[in-house]
Specification:
Elements (H helix, E strand, L loop, with lengths): L18 H11 L3 H33 L11 H4 L5 E5 L3 H9 L5 E3 L2 E5 H4 L4 H7 L1 H52 L3 H6 L2 H43 L1 H8 L2 H38 L1 H6 L3 H53 L5 H43 L23 E12 L2 E12 L3 E5 L6 H8 L7 E6 L2 E2 L5 H6 L1 E4 L10 H5 L8 H10 L3 H6 L17 H15 L3 E5 L7 H15 L3 E5 L3 H4 L4 E6 L2 E6 L1 H7 L2 H14 L1
Bound molecules: adenosine-5'-triphosphate.
Protein name: ABC transporter ATP-binding protein/permease
Main location: membrane
Subcellular location: Cell membrane
Length: 665
């Protein structure tokens, strides 16, 4: 396994992404378009609410707290421009008239209005003051009520939007994982030898998670931050264009800072991810190779490598902090600077009576709000980039399709040859995993129903490769494999594999119960069958020893069992399948002679009456085979039964002698 954990692909980050990617993303969203439209609508409404809140403070101030005189006021402008500010009241209201009459000396009357300087308001008793300002107090109450309604609505919308958005995001992730899993599971073996396990795992986990970020961040970026920015700019211009322009003068500096920040943050962010991925890879390698590391005393070197990686990660982490620590306060400072500009410039306008106090207060709030989306956009830009890179990697995996092509002329469903295995024939089969490096050269043999063909030969001779070809994990480069006289390429591969049981060199057990490991459909296996199979596979003693018998859960693929026990379980699995063709790759791991004898008996039971191609690493396993093929450097060097080959005194005989000598030693 190459433990790169996907960091090689990190190099893709930061490349310009084309629109094609977005086009491919849209179909993923299509099933959830209602949710998405709902979510965007809610974001729009939330933006509107947020834009309305400061405006309400303007209304409260200008209409009710420091009312701006209505245009109908009977005092001409030059008198209004007095140093003092006045409260104008309507004498047509009975309550007001009574107060004005009682404190006549404080009011100036004209037509149906009267005015009183703000400075003199303090001279009125609290009760009269309230009467005088009854309208404003009621108005203020309404404004506050409206404000509360908006706040509650904002809360509800935010909650709903979150739920809807996350629901869509999680569903998209769910669908994507299903597609990826199905896609990966159907690929042929070459695909898996080229793709490191960790890379595929990263696609299914991290990259899919990043895609989720893509949807949620994209929605919040485009529809919240950008709407908000545009909205605030529009409202500021509408409130007072002079104030707006004064604030916008700072914008180039802000944009410059944001662009610089997102660039630097991206570099650090990427380098950091590469390091974290390397740490993952190193960790996985250490755990996998812990026996070798401890036996060869490589702990120190291994630790030193880890320490290097970890120190680098720390250094980059610190750099990341610095970049953020500089940018966030910088934007904050620029925001405060904008406020200062506004207080000075807007304050002067208020003093000149060109702008109402309410407008200034609302503008101050808008300006404070203006800087948050800018900061968020700069931050989210990286997340977006990262998510786009993940999307690209996922699509490139989905585009890699190495599934076996459907046979052009598949066996007719009525064809009797499809159900019963009668013969296997390899006809001058040559094959190379890597072009130019053949591992099988012109290999031919036949096996009739019920016969056993054993493949023996030195390591690397190509024995396992023959089994790979018979399972159609690969196709031969030349020559043909025929089953029942029909080219393997014309078989429906599922049907063929359905007739076959494979026992691999390394017993593969799954993290499930023993019963689930042996029986494909545990609920359909009756007690009599279970007992028969356990007996034939010599697994009874093992099952009795386990605390819950067949229902014992095997942790970590049966890591707590001995290799001999694991082999017996895989033999039981093959027996349970009741296959017509057994492909058996004998385990090479060391087992004591007593266990070996038990395994031999189990294998004998498995093979009896079935067609079998077996790779024998111990010649004793091959002894009783109908035909033994001795492979050497990919060629059939000798063929015959045990007696014939021994009489020949060739390679088989020599291998036999070697094995006997080893046993004697
Ligand atoms: N997936 C692969 N990609 C490239 N080369 C491979 C692959 N699998 C096996 N080989 C090479 O093909 C040759 C034959 O391998 P094969 O596993 O068939 O040998 P074998 O006779 O079964 O060996 P052993 O007795 O050690 O199991 C070897 O040189 C091996 O390195």
């Amino acid at each position: 396994m190459r433990g790169d954990y996907g960091y090689i692909e990190e190099g893709l980050l930061g490349k310009p992404r084309d629109l094609g990617l977005l086009k491919r993303l849209l179909p993923l969203l299509r099933p959830y378009r209602r949710l998405l439209i709902g979510s965007v609508t809610l974001v729009l409404m939330m933006t509107l609410i947020n834009l309305t809140l400061p405006y309400l403070s303007k209304v409260a101030i200008d209409r009710y707290i420091v009312p701006v005189p209505a245009h109908t006021t009977p005092w001409p402008d030059q008198e209004m421009a007095d140093e003092r500010r006045y409260l104008t009241v309507d004498l047509r209201r009975e309550q007001v008239r009574q107060v004005v009459e009682r404190f006549d000396h404080l009011f100036e009357r004209r037509a149906a209005a009267a005015r009183i300087a703000y400075a003199d308001l303090a001279r009125l008793p609290a009760e009269d003051l309230r009467r005088l300002r009854q309208d404003q107090i009621t108005g203020l109450g309404w404004v506050v009520l409206f404000l509360l309604v908006l706040v509650v609505a904002d809360f509800a919308f935010t909650f709903l939007q979150r739920v809807i958005m996350e629901r869509a995001g999680h569903r998209v992730m769910h669908d994507l994982r299903m597609r990826l899993f199905e896609h990966i599971q159907q690929q042929r073996l070459t695909f898996f030898t080229r793709q490191p396990v960790a890379r595929l795992v990263t696609r299914m986990t991290n990259d899919v998670q990043n895609m989720h970020e893509l949807f949620t961040t994209f929605a919040s970026m485009v529809f919240r931050d950008i709407f908000m920015l545009l909205g605030i700019a529009a409202v500021l211009l509408a409130l007072n264009w002079r104030i707006a322009l004064a604030v916008f003068a700072l914008l180039p500096v802000v944009v410059w800072a944001a662009v610089r920040f997102s660039r630097r943050a991206r570099e650090v962010f990427r380098a950091l991810r590469v390091k974290v991925a390397q740490i993952n890879g190193h960790m996985a390698e250490t755990i996998e190779g812990i026996r070798t590391i401890q036996t060869f005393g490589r702990q120190e070197r291994n630790f030193a490598r880890f320490a290097d990686l970890n120190n680098e990660t720390l250094r980059l982490g610190m750099r990341e902090i610095h970049v953020f620590a500089l940018f966030m306060p910088l934007i904050e400072v620029l925001g405060l600077l904008a406020l200062a500009v506004l207080v000075l410039f807007g304050g002067l306008q208020v003093l000149d009576n060109r702008v109402s106090l309410g407008v200034l207060v609302a503008a101050l709030t808008y300006v404070r709000m203006f800087f948050r989306p800018i900061r968020d956009l700069a931050e989210n830009y990286n997340i977006l980039q990262n998510a786009m890179a993940s999307a690209e990697r996922i699509f490139s995996l989905l585009d890699t399709d190495t599934r076996l092509p459907r046979p052009a002329e598949a066996l007719d469903a009525q064809d009797p040859r499809k159900d019963r295995l009668q013969s296997i024939a390899l006809e001058r089969v040559s094959f190379a995993y890597t072009p130019g490096e053949p591992v099988l050269r012109e290999v031919s043999f036949t096996a009739q129903q019920g016969q056993t063909v054993a493949l023996v030969g030195p390591t690397g001779a190509g024995k396992t490769s023959v089994l790979n070809l018979l399972q159609r994990f690969y196709d031969p480069d030349s020559g043909r494999i025929r089953i029942n006289g029909v080219d393997l390429r014309h078989w429906d591969i599922r049907r063929l594999r359905g007739m076959t049981a494979l026992v691999t060199q390394e017993p593969v057990l799954f993290s499930a119960t023993l019963r689930e490991n042996i029986f494909a459909r545990p609920d359909q296996a009756d007690e009599a069958t279970v007992t028969r199979i356990l007996q034939a596979a010599h697994c009874e003693a093992l099952v009795q020893r386990l605390p819950l018998g067949l229902d014992t859960h095997l942790e970590k693929g049966g890591a707590s069992l001995s290799s001999g026990e694991r082999q017996l379980i895989t033999i039981a699995r093959a027996l349970a399948r009741d296959a017509q063709l057994i492909l058996l790759d004998e385990a090479t791991s060391y087992i004591d002679s007593q266990t070996e004898a038990v395994i031999h008996k189990a294998l004998h039971n498995l093979i009896a009456g079935r067609t079998c191609v077996l790779v024998a690493h111990r010649l004793s396993t091959a002894r009783s085979a109908d035909r033994i093929l001795v492979l050497h450097q990919g060629r059939v060097a000798e063929a015959g039964d045990h007696r014939q080959l021994m009489e020949r005194r060739g390679l088989y005989w020599r291998l036999h002698r070697q094995e006997e000598k080893r046993a004697a030693d």
